[in-house]
Amino acid sequence: MKTIGLIGGMSWESTVEYYSIINNTVKEIKGGLNSAEILLYSVNFKEIEEYQSNNQWDKAEKLLTDIAKNLEYAGADFIVICTNTMHKVADKIQGNIGIPIIHIADSTIEKLKENRIKKVGLLGTKYTIKEDFYKSRIENSGIDIIVPKEEDIEIINKIIFEELCKGVIKEDSKNKYLEIIEKLVEGGAEGIILGCTEIGLLINQEDTNIKLYDTTIIHAKKAAELSLK
Q1: Which of 15, 25, 82, 83 is catalytic?
Q2: N or C: which terminus of the chain carries fewer CB neighbours within 10 A?
Q3: Residue ranges in 40-82 assigned as alpha helix (H)
């Protein structure tokens, strides 16, 4: 079994889901008392969020690069960054380590192509939705992306940082997300990417008829499967 290097804590609420999904997937595949071999480094999210909001991505990159190097030194065979937004610096981190980073967007693209999705709606932080580091990777694979309107992006972002990252789940916020999803469907979306690892704490497939692509589940299962190859 390969050792998974997890960079978590962004937020820890969703990192808990990664840990659970990875271990459950290994148990389902291998049976018995089998569980995943994991090295986890969990950051202080307050520090990361301040780098994000102050546009200090170089500082965030250095911090995560140092962590990835430490995980590599400790014996990790590959790295999983447990957040969508910080994949903004994933390519630069990759250039400074000798083991692969399993990119969250690439894992999601695989699922979208399996289901022959040609146009998909994207939910996430304002950084993930507005900037190209995430969208371009998916669009370059031949899949079109629809994003919410500006006012809806602000609603999504506020709920993520002020509620979900703090473990606060509100029915009203769920309804707001579902309304935004409906607008994306009306715009032609054939599926919806839950492009923030906390969104799955608020909504799941039982809440809507449109196909949801929960990046936490997709990414974590991919990590578990790769650990067994």
Answers
A1: 83
A2: C
A3: 45-53, 57-74
